[in-house]
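Entry 14. Structure prediction run on the chain below.
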Amino acid sequence: MRAPVILASLAATLIVTLPSRELMVLQTAGRASAVESRVPVAGASLYARTIGNGQPILVLHGGPDFDSAYFRPDLDRLADAYRLIYYDQRARGKSAEHVRGEDVTLASDIDDLDKVRQHFGLESATLLGHSWGAVLAMEYALRNPTRVSRLILMNPATASAADLAVFRKVYVDKLGDAAMSQQRQIVAGRAYQEGDPDAVAARYRIHFRPAFAHAEDFERLMKTMKAAFVAQGKDGIVKARVAEDRLMHDTWEVPGYDLLPKLETLRVPTLGIAADHDFFPIETAAHIAQAIPGATLVTLQDCGHFSYMECPGDVHKVFDDFFSRR
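Output returned:
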């Protein structure tokens, strides 16, 4: 089977055919080892991990209560051509020590991102934001356009209250009444409220089920996330959840939240990546791409919310095409 990739700009649509996902899984032999480090920021120290050579890419994880662990090992496939710079955002993952979730704000996350950019000697950076990380990338770029050389918004979360409302309806429809009821019961339970890793993993098993095209990739992600929740422990999970609440307060919970008109001022080369099996409607990414002058939108077929995992070869080719442009 051959998997088509649809490239759409504001003016045109181009359909390209690539080899199947099975044949495009990249070989990892001979790749450079990862290097772990700490990045000092105001009142905290952030965990960072770099791997690969070539064009540096600053990777922003989603959640926003997750950390960068869910990208690995799949996104590391890009390290054969790019230098990937991962970091755990403040109060999440390995950046949770000696900080409070209550102290996290959108402003602190933006400032931390700028400190990470400076720490790695990047005058301007390519930002790769996945899911919620795409929202952080856009918020940063709007405030610091000269410090961003390229934007890659992979399976982006919504940039406006209107698109958020659409997503919530689509999400409920895809999940179904029974699964929604089960998820609500878990979230309301004491174990989940206290950050029990098993309860949290059970909730996300329901949450992400409609976000995948392939059951085997869904199971791999669940295994990776379960390990991350166990590593965080109850206190770390609750702290990350508090940080998430603070970030929601600063973005999606703001009445009339809407980045789309502001994005029209950006003059940064931008690649949007959507997927036909994502639980975010394709229109979410399309509205962002339409707002940013000259942005390109790529819609991957037979692929879900974690496109770097389900369609690694297609994603690599899309990156290569994007970086080949001047």
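The chain has one domain: 3-324.
Filed with the rest of this week's runs.
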